[in-house]
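Why predict the complex rather than its parts? Because the way molecules touch one another can change local conformation, and only a joint prediction can capture that. The input here totals 481 residues.
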Amino acid sequence: MSVYDQYETVIGLEIHVQLNTNSKAFCTDDASFTDDPNTHISIVSLGHPGTLPRANKKQVESAVKLGLALGCTINKNSRFDRKNYFYADLPKGYQITQDAEPICLGGQVTIEVDGKEKQIRLHHIHMEEDAGKSIHDQDPDHSMIDLNRAGVPLLEIVSEPDLRSPEEVQALMSTIRRLVRYLGISDGNMEEGSVRADCNVSVRKWGVDEYGTRCEIKNVNSMRFAKKAVAYEAKRQVDLVERGGTVIQSTLDFNPETGVTTPLRTKEDAHDYRYFPDPDLPLIVLTDADIASIQAQMPELPSVLIPRFIAMGLTEYDAKVLTEDRKTVDYFKEIVQHTKHSKQAANWLLNTVKSWLNEQNKTIAAFPIAPKQLAAVIELVASNTVSAAAASQQLFPAMVKEPETNVQSLAKRLNLIQESDASNLEAFVDQAIAKFPDKVNAYQKGKKGLIGLFMGEVMRLSDGKANPKVANQLLRKKLEV
Ligand code: ADP
Ligand code: MG
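Output of the joint prediction:
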């Protein structure tokens, strides 16, 4: 048994989600991302003395939506605090955040690792603003500062130390990312830093009840890096403890290129920040009616939709994949208003439509075919009017080019309508039987496999348009006389 197996890794995450509001958290500056530095700034973002912040309604609504989705208790009297520290990209000298009275309390997230579900408890979710960005690699002698990001609204989701492996860290980050996208409160774009996590890591020997001293790896903006950083840090701590050292609570930086964590500073305690209520901002007071009206704007969540979709005949796998994206859910819901073949609707979306979107590098939002039109195809296949193969290989590509055309007419024009009328098929069946008298004999003596030969002939005679099911039935009836 390796020495590392004698230790358990304990991790708690502080996940920062950048919201997709139009304006910043406390002023009307544009909150969107741009490469053009210092263009989304006003006297408030610049922290000029005498300027006043104003809370952003959409930030509050986004926090409540996320809190409701995660089973948190909504704090009806939350408030903003100042967290005081000096940093070049923080012109006010303090960050507006929430300390003693955050907007959401408790709650939990269900994560899945290797097919097994686990509940991760949340401590709370709070609202805050982002700081600006210091840029150290553009000038040999100076650091540059871009304040576009200063004041951009964030939610910080603070988990309890319930995670036990790098895989669980990744699962929690990706679950949160999917949820905030689903709720439509963030673009969840990790490359632009819209979701990033501080990873608190400690180790303890198996069987020990108390947690070990933790270190906090700051600002990890990729799930792959988070996994690597946590694994590296846990190993570093075990090595240290095994050598007889002690872990000192500190803040670390992770370098993705070297895969190594390095100390930034030993961890400040909360009292170093001298948190106090921001006197410039009022209490955020929410009534039951406010909360109910925010809830009414929320989409139905995967946790509700998955069981319903399974009851409609979808597999659990299909239901899960389908509900990964809200636009796909909306599309699916609309198809099944026009056809009762839900399972087929899911198959179309997850196979033919998905491959087409991937090939075109498009999302469902840019899919040209209306749900009603796709439902019409599903109906044509279900009624055996068009074969499944012809529908996906010929009709679908044609529909993409002519999304408005009536589906039945298009199928007719492409010559895809199967011959299902028994009286028309009868002539082909009779010809096929007449062609092989000795095989008819053999068939009647028990070589039932010969049905394939007759079917092949019927298909040939009908130019492939005979409905196989009807033709097969008719053949059997005639051969068995
Ligand atoms: P602070 O008040 O200093 O920010 P908290 O107790 O609020 O510290 O915890 C911050 C984060 O650290 C939370 O996500 C929590 O789960 C995590 N955490 C706390 N103690 C430990 C520990 N011993 N090991 C790993 N993570 C921890
Ligand atoms: Mg903290």
